[in-house]
Amino acid sequence: MPHTLAPVLSTTRNLTVRDLLQFHEPAVADWVETCTDEEFVRVCDVADFLSLFGPTSGSGASMMLSKCIALAAVYVHDGAPRDLVRSRRDLKAVIPPVDEDSPGTVWGIQQLRPQFFAVGDDAIAYWAEDPDRVRARRDSSAAGHARRGDVSGDQLTGGG
Q: In the chain, is it the N or the C terminus that has fewer CB atoms within a 10 Å radius of its CB?
């Protein structure tokens, strides 16, 4: 029986670099331009988690996608969660023009991964509004992929 894949956030490297520069993260922006396709899929997976389960504003609104993507890139690059250098975008920052031909998320890699495979317990503890709910969703998705024989859940989550 075919399985339905959860929608996953997707973006381009150019847009990610633009976001990172506006949050004053030039070293991570440089890394995004040269990271592997697998690493970029990890960025998108973590950004997806942040957009759905990350911190909300006082009004209950989720954070802007540009911030989700920047935080995710920092997390994957640094190997640990942290705040961005700037909490708000610097709209006067010098950024490259939009590049319509910029490579984006590789769907072929993304579809082989369970939802939140790149989200470690450290990120869940740092950002999630409801950590138990996120862990359960991540672990359920990894178990489903393992049952289908895609890859083991431990391979994807680094052992949870």
A: N
Are 126 and 84 a contacting pair, CB within 8 Å? Answer: no
Task: Write down how long the chain is.
Answer: 160
Per-residue pLDDT reduced to its tens digit, 102-127: 988 888 888 888 889 999 999 999 99
Count of the separate structural domains present in the chain: 1
> What Cα–Cα distance (Å) separates residue 22 from each residue in 28, 38, 61, 85, 129?
12, 24, 21, 10, 25
**Whole-angstrom Cα distance, residue 32 to residue 40?**
7
160 belongs to a structural domain: no
Phi and psi angles of residue 12, each rounded to the nearest 5 degrees, phi first? -110, 160
Per-residue tokens: 20: 């990172």
pTM: 0.86
* Residue from 109, 102, 138 nearest 123 by CA: 138
